[in-house]
Amino acid sequence: MRLSKLFGVAGIVGVAATGAVLARHERSRRAYSAEEVRARLQGRVAETASASLDPDLAPDWPAEVEPPRRHPLEAALSAVMRIGPLRRY
C-alpha cells in the first residue's frame, strides 16, 4: 500500500514539475513582440536563402521525376471510403 502511495505522489510531483517547465517556456516565448518574431523569422529565411547548398543534403535523384504510381490497394481503399488519393509527404 505504501509503495502505491509513493508512486502516486511521484506522479503528482512529475505532473507539477512538467507544468512549471511549460509555464516558464510559455512566458519566455510570449516575451517577444510581434515585430521581433517577424524580424527573426525574416532573418532566418534570408539566412537560408543565402546559404550555399550542402552537397550531402542535395537530393540524389534528377529534377525531372515522374509522380509515383498509385498502388492498386490505395485506389480500392479510396473508392471504398470515398476519399481522394492519399497524400504522400
What do you see in this structure?
The protein is an all-alpha fold and 89 residues long. The chain has helices at residues 2-30, 34-50, 72-81. The model has no long low-confidence stretch (mean pLDDT 77).
Q: What class, by secondary structure content?
A: mainly alpha
Give a short account of the largest sheet: none
> How many strand units?
0
Mean pLDDT: 77
- Radius of gyration using CA atoms only: 25 Å
Helix content: 55-70%
As residue ranges, the low-confidence spans are none
Task: Encode the helix/strand succession as letters.
Answer: HHH
Q: What characteristic shape results from the CA principal axes?
A: flat
State the end-to-end distance: 50 Å
Number of helices: 3
Query: Proportion of β residues?
Result: under 5%
Write the layout of secondary structure elements.
Layout: H1 2-30, H2 34-50, H3 72-81
Structure in a nutshell:
The chain has about 90 residues and is mainly alpha-helical. The protein is built from three helices and no strands.
Notable features of this structure?
89 residues
